[in-house]
Amino acid sequence: MGTQVSKQMQRRKAISVEKKTLTDLHGKSGDEFPGSDYRSPDRKNWMSGLDPQKIHINQIVWPGTHDSATNKIGVRFISRPFAQCQSLSIYRQLIRGARVLDIRVQENRRVCHGILMTYSIDVVINDIKKFLAETQSEIIILEIRTEFGHQDPPDFDKYLEEQLGEFLIHQDDHVFGKTIAELLPKRVICVWKPRKTPPPKAGGPLWSAGYLKDNWIDTDLPSTKFESNLKHLSEQAPVSNRKFFYRVENTVTPQADNPVLCVKPVTGRIHVYARLFIAQCISRGCADRLQIFSTDFIDEDFVDACVGYTHARIEGKA
């Protein structure tokens, strides 16, 4: 018992030290960057507002959500706090400005997060189609993967093609250098990551796993995650030379050996430092690598930070 108590005290001290490290960095360096004062007048149509004729796909800092379809996962007040990473529906996230979705599925086409599951993938697809019907120039990156420990849904590639066929942007390396206007009326880059079934074929309507990469750091220590994100990002090629999307996630995750297991208070340790991360990318010379930036519990300020830096890139200020 004494050993366990000592271990927990050490963990709490480590978390406290890491939170102070980020607070001190923020106080010393600030979180201003080119475009940081930008506030989108219409987050539902922010790509349209920046001019689809001017925005190249590789210029965008894509605001994304981590474990996107978990707003109703598990049982409310019982298991949900341990797995919920978003409080909004997919449609509401898109309205708020999210443009990258992270969806995990299991064999029966139900969305899941670990052992907990929620609604059918149909709910996600219908929300996306509703949003697409209400907008004209917004591009979405939809990542769907079979969750670890689960089997691939049968014929899932065919399902995605049937449901989203008219909107799907086909797998093509040239997409990264094109403007949004050049891709329209196609609107969805769908990355399908099965575990065992064959991956999408080159040139087809779905994109394979190699086109969306990240370096997932499983920790609840905010400064550790912040610095690891910067390190891995700095090792990537600049977006202008890259033929895949690279994601950084401004999240930390509960750990089994820590008494705090609910997602929201844990990820809150890093959530407020999204603007600081962009500012540090600039000061450390890796801002030209930043592309997809994802978060738990997405809010307007996070979206504005991403869109603001995108706007600065387009205007030649970043």
Automatic annotation (TrEMBL):
**Which GO BP annotation is one of this protein's?**
lipid metabolic process
Among PROSITE patterns, the record links this protein to: PIPLC_X_DOMAIN
List the biased-composition ranges (Basic and acidic residues).
Answer: 15-31
List the GO molecular function terms: phosphoric diester hydrolase activity
Domain Phosphatidylinositol-specific phospholipase C X, chain residue ranges per copy: 51-192
Give a single Pfam family match: PI-PLC-X
- Chain spans, region Disordered: 1-44
InterPro entries this protein is in? Answer: PI-PLC_domain, PLC-like_Pdiesterase_TIM-brl, PLipase_C_PInositol-sp_X_dom
CDD domains per record: PI-PLCXDc_plant (cd08619)
The molecule here is called Phosphatidylinositol-specific phospholipase C X domain-containing protein
Q: Which organism is it from?
A: Nelumbo nucifera
